[in-house]
Structure formats: structure tokens, C-alpha cells
Amino acid sequence: MTTPDGGQLRTTIYYGPWQCSAAFLSRCESKCAAQGYPLRGCMWLADIKGDWQGRYLFMPAEAGGRMAITHCCCDYPTVSNGRQLREKWKNAREGFRRQWGSEFGEWPSTNGANWQGHHIFDLAHGGPPVAPDNVLPVPQDVHQVFNDEYPACYAPGGKWLTPGPARPYAD
User: Fold this and answer.
1) Does the pLDDT of residue 164 top 70, yes or no?
2) What is the C-alpha separation between 81 and 121, in angstroms, rounded?
């Protein structure tokens, strides 16, 4: 997408799930402990890479950065109002996608079908249904993998407690 200064911003999302690095696991352990829950696992869901090309002081310039999207599977209790949370998401979904698109570019789709909105902090454990930093667009097949792996992340002693590499992919 074009930036206000006439440059170009390209956002690329690399999808996991991957095992969290030792640093991410440590951060999750601290987060869970601060909330009074033991850590069950950590999933590195995606990496968002932003690349900018434009002009700085009238000279051509490039910059970029990365942001890891992780989820700490603390031993949260499941919520009783999961259906209400899902309904709230369903009712707000189209507006959420438009708002997301105004910042990052059009909500992704494949063959005219919008990608799923994956709740990073899942609704079953009380994740906020329409918080801007809690929903990530994912292709349907990736969304299914995430949904299949979340129960394993919340289960005690699974693979999601084992540290993974510092960067699990090469671009």
C-alpha cells in the first residue's frame, strides 16, 4: 500500500505454528506467573514482516522490521460465555476487517472468500473477541492447524513447552 509520503509499504505474514524460542517461553512463563497461572505452553503463530521503500531527506531509502505473534497458553479456566463471545465477533467481523484494512491493506481473501480471523488469545479461555491486537487474518487451512494445536498447547507437558529456534523459517 502507498504511504502518505509517497513510499510503498509491503506487509508479509509468515505463518506457524512454531515452538517458541527460549526467550519467548521465558516471557510467557513470567506473564503467566504474574497472572497467577502456570505456563502450559507457548505457540509462535506468525511473524509479520513490514518493508518500506520511499525517500528520506530526498534520497531513496528502505527500512523494515518484524513482529512475532505468540500466544502464552497459561492454565486459564475455560469460560462459560464462549457462545456470547463468538456471537460478538460474528456481529463485528465485517467492520473489524474494514478497520484492519485501513491500516494494513485489504483483508486477505482467496478466490473471493475472506480469510478467517484467528483469535490469538482464544475465546474459549476469555480472549477479547474484537480487540485489534487479538485477531490475525489466516488462511482456512492454517486456521484449522491453529485450532487443532491450541488444545495441545493448553495440555500439561506437551511439545509447546519445548523451546524452538530463534527464527523458525528463512525468507
Assistant:
1) yes
2) 15
Q: 10 Å Cβ neighbour count for 138?
A: 21
Model pLDDT for residues 78-89, shown as the tens digit of each residue = 999 999 999 999
- Alpha carbon 39 to chain centroid distance? 19
HSE-CB of 93 using CA atoms within 13 angstroms: 13
Burial class (CB in 10 A: 0-12, 13-18, 19+), 53: middle
Whether pLDDT at 171 is above 70: no
Q: What is the mean pLDDT of residues 44-50?
A: 92
